[in-house]
Amino acid sequence: MLSIHIPFYNLVLLPFSSLIISAVEIVTSPVECRKKILSLTVEGKNIGFVPTMGALHDGHMELVRQAKLSCDFVVVSIFVNRTQFNNEEDFKKYPKSFDSDAEKLRQSGCDIVFAPSDGDMYPGTPEVKITFPGLQKSMEGHYRPGHFEGVALVVSKLLHVVPAQKAFFGRKDWQQVLIIKQLVRDLHFFSEIISVPTVREPDGLAMSSRNQRLSEKERSLAVIFSKSLYMAREKLLAGESVEGAVASVRQAFDRLPEVRLEYFEIANRETLEPVQSVETNVPVSLFIAGYVGDVRLIDNIFLQEETE
After folding, report:
1. Looking at 5, 57, 60, 160, which residue is catalytic?
2. What is the pTM of this model?
3. Active site residue 60
4. Would the pLDDT of 268 be above 90?
C-alpha cells in the first residue's frame, strides 16, 4: 500500500488509487476514476464535471457551484497539462497549490477530485493529433501553435475517464469552449458542454490563475484588458465602426509601455470569423490578449450584454 502524506488534512488511507480528505475523495488512477463514475451512472446519478489545472480561484469555484446546482455528483479534475503549453517556461511557472485547492473543493461540497500524474495521463508519447482548421486558425490558435491540439487531446482523455452528463467551462476561454463543443460533437462524447460567464475582480479584471504571478504594480496595470473590452463595446453600441473601436484599443495600450497588446479582435461569436460591422444579426464577441511583464492574459466579452 502506498503511503501518501498531504499536510494540513486528516487522511484516511485507502488503496493506492484514492484517499479521503473529509468528504472529498481524491482519485489518482484514471481506471479507478472511470469505474466510480460508471457505477454512479448506473445508480442513476447525474454527474457534473469541472476540468481544471488547479490554482483555483472564484472563477473555478463558480463552475463548481453551477455543477452542484444542476447535478447530483460533482467531479473536479486537477491536472496541469503539459501538451497545451507552447512555451516550456510558461508551463514551469504555472501556479500549483494542491493543498489549498483540495480544501476549497472540500468546502464547496465537491465529491471527487481526480488528480492524476503526468504518467497516468500520458503513459507514452502521444501520437494522436486533433486539429480544428477553422476554429483554431485565429487568436489563441495563431499565437499559441499547438495549444488547442493539446487541449483537445487532454479533454478527450478526461471525458473518457469522467463520462459525465455535463462538463463546465468558463467563458473567459471562449475560443476553447467552441473547440471543445466541436470536439464533443465530432467524437460523440455524451457530455453536454456548459459555458459559465466569466467571474471578475471588483475592478473588472477577469479572474485567472495567472493573476497570481502579477506584481502589485502589474496587477494595477492588468485592468487595461477588461477596460479596453468594455470601452470598445460601448463605442460599438454607440455606432462606432469596427475599425474605430480597434484603433481606440490600440491607442489605449500605446499609452502604457509596461503592457503589450498581442491581439484585439471583433469576431462572430460562433465561427470566430472577423466581422466588418456589428450592425447585423450576427452574434459578436470582443477578444483580447497580451502581456503585463511576462504574464500573458486573455479576456473576452459578448457584444450583446444581455446575453452574456
Report:
1. 60
2. 0.91
3. yes
4. yes
